[in-house]
Automatic annotation (TrEMBL):
Protein name: diguanylate cyclase
Organism: Prosthecodimorpha hirschii
Listed SMART domains: GGDEF, REC
Domain of life: Bacteria
Region described as Disordered: 392-449
4-aspartylphosphate modifications at: 156
GO terms of biological process kind: cell adhesion involved in single-species biofilm formation; negative regulation of bacterial-type flagellum-dependent cell motility; phosphorelay signal transduction system
EC number: 2.7.7.65
An annotated Gene Ontology molecular function: diguanylate cyclase activity
Keywords: Phosphoprotein
Response regulatory domain sequence ranges: 107-223
């Protein structure tokens, strides 16, 4: 549970924190625009210097040497993008700046056997908008880490039940927690002990005597850097979406949240129809373009709180939070219709593609594996019934229809049309494996439920 200090404690600590040290919150308020500056202009560097404070500056230029990059750094340039312009790279920078403008609150796990000391630290972080959870019993650390994706673990070095260094080594034994920064907070001054703390799983060391303003800022900077690195590690290189492992982790976390709060979520497994035909007919670069187009269009269509991941190959996972299947169906089906009308441009012409999707709600399954199996079975049925459609799994738990894919290309057959468009099956419909059937929905506004 998130730590919330009592009002007297919060007011007292708020008076002791200089708002100027709450860097993440200040950045979120300041960043408003992204400026693309042509490095070929004679006064390009001067334009960078004159840009409004808080604006993200992207310097677009040909090959840049050390001196050019140094001048860019001095002028406050945030990103240097080479020409010819790679639209995918530019899109990734824009997404980065967007996330920086409205970041999710940082989440920090404070591990300290001294509750009073832990609450003092948590209150300092709370003043700057950092959500914290306190663990005073080290044996329950893994329960907290498995329940929530923390941005940082702030841990006392000396605890009676187990030392901080040993606990850090235990945390690092799990691949799931390898990328979570661990920062030790201690009064220990011995250089050898500090080095051992870093060597065996710790990332940094902050003295308990550190000024409280500086402590908060150090935590914020650590969180900011960790988020950037984790994004690079956990994202698919082609589409920029989170990868298979991270997506399944998010599904598990949301199911756990649902058990605690009673909230619903809906999982959709989305698979591009006849994708092998696209690659065979138009080439693998065209296939990559389709994958990127679907990922970007789907992300833009949904809410920012929804989760889109690349599950593997041409299959994507969509997790819609606080949403039932009945609410998800119109949104996803309107996107299905919208996407089927988009022209995919290749070297030799243009073509169109469709996708099929299987949908399952969290009331259908309480565990990640069973929810994925239900959605995957519904997807298989959508393929078997003709593709370009949605199929919804039954709402009640029960045996999941078993299926096997006889070959890697079972879902990917198709033929080239003479007009240059990929072959499409009959007009899609929404199907449920239960008695209820829902008609198609129109519209292409961002998902609102």
């Amino acid at each position: 549970m998130n730590y919330v200090p009592d009002s007297e404690f919060a007011d007292r600590d708020a008076e002791r924190i200089d708002p100027g040290f709450c860097g993440a919150a200040a950045t979120a308020e300041e960043v408003r625009d992204v400026l693309l500056i042509d490095g070929g202009l004679d006064d390009a560097i001067d334009l960078c210097r004159a840009a409004p404070a808080g604006a993200a500056k992207v310097f677009v230029a040909g090959p840049t040497g050390f001196d050019q990059r140094r001048r860019c750094a001095e002028a406050g340039v945030d990103a240097v993008v080479a020409t010819p312009l790679d639209l995918r790279e530019l899109a990734e920078w824009l997404e980065y700046f967007r996330d920086r403008e409205a970041p999710e609150p940082a989440r920090v796990l404070v591990v300290d056997d001294d509750r009073l000391a832990a609450e003092m630290v948590a209150a300092l972080l709370w003043v700057c908008g950092i959500e914290t959870e306190i663990v005073t019993d080290p044996t329950t650390v893994f329960e907290a880490l498995d329940r929530i994706a923390f941005d940082l673990v702030l841990m006392d070095l000396s605890m009676p039940q187990i030392g901080g260094i040993e606990l850090a080594r235990m945390i690092r034994q799990s691949r799931r927690h390898l990328s979570v920064p661990i920062v030790f907070l201690s009064g220990e001054d011995d250089a050898e002990t500090q080095m051992a703390a870093r060597r065996f799983g710790g990332d940094d060391f902050i003295s308990k005597r550190t000024d409280r303003n500086l402590l908060v800022r150090l935590v914020e900077l650590r969180v900011e850097r960790a988020r950037v690195l984790r994004s690079l590690i956990e994202r698919d290189g082609l589409t920029g979406l989170i990868d298979h492992s991270r997506f399944l982790e998010r599904v598990g976390q949301e199911l756990e949240r649902g058990r605690r709060t009673g909230s619903n979520c809906t999982l959709a497994m989305v698979d591009i129809d006849n994708f092998k035909t696209v690659n065979d007919t138009w080439g693998h670069q065209a296939g990559d373009h389709v994958l990127r187009r679907l990922s970007s269009a789907l992300t833009a269509w949904l809410r920012r709180t929804d989760v889109v991941g690349r599950y593997g190959g041409e299959e994507f996972g969509v997790l819609m939070l606080d949403t039932t299947p009945d609410q998800a169906v119109p949104v996803l089906d309107s996107f299905r219709q919208h996407f089927s009308r988009l022209d995919m441009v290749a070297r030799d012409g243009a073509f169109r593609v469709t996708f099929s999707a299987g949908i399952a709600g969290s009331t259908r399954a309480s565990e990640t594996a069973s929810l994925v199996a239900a959605a995957d079975a519904a997807l298989y049925r959508a393929k078997a019934e003709g593709r370009d459609r949605l199929v919804v799994a039954p709402a009640s738990a029960g045996p999941v229809p078993q299926h096997t894919r006889s070959s890697p290309t079972e879902w990917k057959d198709g033929h080239r049309r003479t007009d240059g468009h990929a072959a499409r099956p009959p007009s899609g419909r929404i199907r449920r494996t239960g008695p209820k059937e829902v008609s198609d929905a129109d519209g292409h506004e961002r998902h609102q439920v």
